[in-house]
Write a structure and sequence with these properties.
The chain is mainly β. Helices cover about 0% and strands about 40% of the residues. The relative contact order is 0.15.
Length: about 375
C-alpha cells in the first residue's frame, strides 16, 4: 500500500492510499511508501542537493533564480544571481554540491542568461548565508527562447562534473561537435575538459552527443555506469546508458523536424539505442536517481524518474545484465502534480520536487514503510 501522509500545516489534502501492482515475474515492490512534505511555498523548485558533511543540509534551486537552503524548517536564501533569466523552460536549473565542499565550499548551478545557458561555480560561506566568489566555468551553451535548455548537473563516481544540455531547438546542434547543445559534458571543477574524455575532433568537453533535451543524470551505485534521461518529441522519451563518444542519433534537420526519430539508425547505423523508451505518447521524465540501500528491499537498485506530463514517479527495474529495463511501475500518481526532480538523500529517503509555481511548489520526503 502506498500511504501518503500529508501535513495539515501545509494545508494539504487528506491521506490517500493505493496499492501499486507487482510486475509479473519482476521484483516485489516495497510494502509501502510514506510521503511527508518537507517544505512548501516554493515556486517551481528545480533541483535538490545535499552537503556531503553532517548534518547534510538540503540545498535547492527554484526556476525564477533562487539558490536556497532548508534551515529551521524554512527557506533561507543563499543567492539570487542578477543575470539569471526565467523564460519558457529555462531559468535557475541544475544544482550540484562539490563532494569536497567541506574544504572548498563550491556549489554549482546551471542557469539561463540573456545570452546563453551557463554553469556557474559559487563559493559559499561556511554557514550558507551567501556567496563570496563566483566563477562562470562553462559558458556558451546555446539558448533559444528558453525551450530545450537542459540542464542537470551531477558529480559522478569519477569525481568529475557531468552536465546535460538541450539542443536549444536548433536542428544542427546535436550532431555539431563544436556546439555544446544536445550533449552530455564531462568537466573538471574549473570547467576544463576532464581527463579520459573521448577525442571526437570537436569540443573536448563533450562526452556524448546526438541528444534532444537531457534533463536527468544518474549513476548506478557500485558501478561507473552513467545514465541520462531525455525528453522525446511526440514519442520516445529515453533513458540512455552513456558511453564515451557515443552518438545517440537525434538529428532533426533540415530545419527542426520533430517528426525525426529520436535515434536515427538510418543516418547513423552505429548510434546508441536507448536503454528504455516511453513509446507513444511521451510522459516527459526529468530528474532521476537510483535507489540504493536494503531499506528499499525489492526496489533496491531501481531507477526512479520524476515525471512532468504524466505526473508520477516512474520506477524502472534493470534486468540481469544491468542494462535494459525489464519491468516498470508508476507510483505517487495520486498527487496529480508535475514532478521535476527526485534525489536520494543521505538518510536514504527520496526527496521529490514538484513543478508548481506561484508559491505552490513543494519538496517531499518519500521513504519506505
Amino acid at each position: 500500500m502506498l500511504l501518503l501522509l500529508l501535513a495539515t500545516s501545509l494545508a494539504l489534502a487528506a491521506c490517500v492510499a493505493v496499492d501499486p501492482a507487482t510486475p509479473p515475474g519482476g521484483p516485489q515492490p516495497t510494502p509501502g511508501l510514506v510521503a511527508i512534505p518537507v517544505l512548501g511555498d516554493l515556486s517551481q523548485p528545480w533541483d535538490i542537493a545535499f552537503l556531503p558533511v553532517a548534518p547534510g543540509s538540503m540545498l535547492f534551486t527554484e526556476k525564477a533564480g533562487d539558490l536556497s537552503v532548508l534551515s529551521d524548517g524554512g527557506k533561507q536564501l543563499i543567492h539570487h544571481p542578477a543575470d539569471v533569466v526565467s523564460q519558457s523552460e529555462g531559468g535557475m536549473m541544475g544544482l550540484a554540491v562539490d563532494p569536497a565542499w567541506a574544504t572548498n565550499r563550491f556549489v554549482y548551478v546551471c542557469m539561463l542568461t540573456a545570452t546563453d545557458v551557463r554553469v556557474v561555480r559559487f563559493t559559499t560561506t561556511a554557514n550558507l548565508s551567501g556567496v563570496i566568489a563566483r566563477s562562470d566555468i562553462v559558458t556558451g551553451i546555446p539558448r533559444s527562447s528558453g525551450r530545450h535548455s537542459g540542464c542537470r548537473l551531477r558529480f559522478g563516481p569519477d569525481d568529475r562534473l557531468w552536465i546535460s544540455t538541450g539542443d536549444a531547438v536548433q536542428g544542427t546542434n546535436p550532431q555539431d561537435l563544436d556546439s555544446l547543445g544536445g550533449k552530455v559534458l564531462r568537466v573538471n571543477r574549473n570547467g576544463a575538459a576532464a581527463p579520459g574524455n573521448p577525442s571526437l575532433g570537436g569540443d573536448p568537453r563533450i562526452y556524448t552527443y546526438g541528444h534532444r533535451n537531457v534533463q536527468g543524470l544518474a549513476f548506478r551505485p557500485g558501478t561507473n555506469q552513467a545514465f541520462s534521461v531525455e525528453h522525446g518529441t511526440g514519442c520516445d522519451d529515453e533513458v540512455n546508458r552513456l558511453v564515451a563518444g557515443a552518438n545517440y542519433g537525434w538529428d532533426p534537420v533540415p530545419g527542426y523536424n520533430e517528426t525525426a526519430p529520436m535515434t536515427d539508425l538510418v543516418k547513423f547505423p552505429t548510434a546508441r539505442v536507448a536503454t528504455w523508451s516511453s513509446g507513444c505518447p511521451t510522459i516527459a521524465p526529468s530528474g532521476a536517481t537510483f535507489l540504493d540501500g536494503p531499506q528499499w528491499r525489492g526496489w533496491n537498485g531501481a531507477l526512479v524518474l520524476a515525471v512532468l506530463k504524466d505526473q508520477h514517479l516512474h520506477v524502472l527495474f534493470p534486468n540481469g545484465s544491468g542494462d535494459l529495463v525489464a519491468f516498470e511501475q508508476e507510483v505517487m500518481n495520486e498527487f496529480g502534480t508535475r514532478l521535476r526532480s527526485v534525489v536520494q538523500g543521505p538518510d536514504g529517503s527520496l526527496y521529490v520536487a514538484t513543478d508548481v509555481g506561484g508559491g505552490g511548489g513543494l519538496i517531499w520526503r518519500v521513504l519506505p514503510l
